[in-house]
Amino acid sequence: MSAVLATAMLAACGHGSGVPLGRPSDLGPAPAIELPAVADGQPAVSLAARRGTPVIVNFWSSSCVPCRTETPALEAAHRKTGGRVAFVGVDEEDVKADAQAALRAWGATYPSAYDRDGVLADGYRLVGLPTTVLVGADGRMRLRHTGPLDEKAIAALVKLAAA
């Protein structure tokens, strides 16, 4: 799976910005996220703990070039929502020190899970990074987008989430 994901990540990196998000639909229940946090000393990251609130889940890696510009835009949206929409990052198959350095450099303060072994890749049907998934307040996946999102697309995603 790692080789397939790595190949697909290279194919997806750099594509998707400015691309319409598509229509929300029922993509099934969101697989559980119960993983340690990237940041040392932070509590484990749990999707179930956010049940009742829509969640924007962003899968990323420190080596993903588009993630470097997308993450600050996600952080700005996270700060702007005031908790109406939760944001969760998931670092995929990375070296933890690299992931920690990336979060510091990119300014992300929302919780980010550390998925060293890529255990969530199949359940979330990842085909590249970054991938962003909208999980409704009911715990069901409503939208999946592979490729970077710009500020306008993130604002549209937040609007969908809050609707």
Summarize the structure.
The protein has 163 residues and is an alpha/beta fold. It is built from four helices and seven strands.
List the helices and strands and how they pair.
Layout: H1 2-12, E1 34-35, E2 45-46, E3 55-60, H2 65-81, E4 86-92, H3 96-106, E5 112-115, E6 131-135, E7 141-146, H4 151-162
Parallel strand pairs: 3-4, 4-5
Antiparallel strand pairs: 1-2, 3-6, 6-7
Helix pairs in contact: 2-4
The CATH architecture is 3-Layer(aba) Sandwich
CATH topology group: Glutaredoxin
Residue fraction in strands: 15-25%
Low-confidence stretches: 1-17
The DSSP helix count reads 4
Describe the global form.
Answer: globular
Query: How many structural domains?
Result: 1
Distance, first to last CA: 35 Å
Helix content: 25-40%
The counted number of beta strands is 7
Strand order of the largest sheet: 5-4-3-6-7
CATH superfamily: Glutaredoxin
State Rg.
14 Å
CATH C-level name: Alpha Beta
Oligomer: single chain
What is the average per-residue confidence, as pLDDT, rounded to a whole number? 89
Question: How would you spell out the order of helices and strands?
Answer: HEEEHEHEEEH
Describe the structure.
- By secondary structure, this protein is α/β, with parallel strands linked by helices.
- It has one domain (2-162): Glutaredoxin (3-Layer(aba) Sandwich).
- The chain contains 4 helices and 7 strands.
- The protein has helices at residues 2-12, 65-81, 96-106, 151-162; strands at 34-35, 45-46, 55-60, 86-92, 112-115, 131-135, 141-146.
- Strands 5-4-3-6-7 form a 5-stranded mixed beta sheet, with helices on one face. Strands 1-2 form a two-stranded antiparallel ribbon.
- Helix 2 (65-81) packs across helix 4 (151-162).
- The longest helix has 17 residues, at 65-81.
- The radius of gyration is 14 Å and the shape is globular.
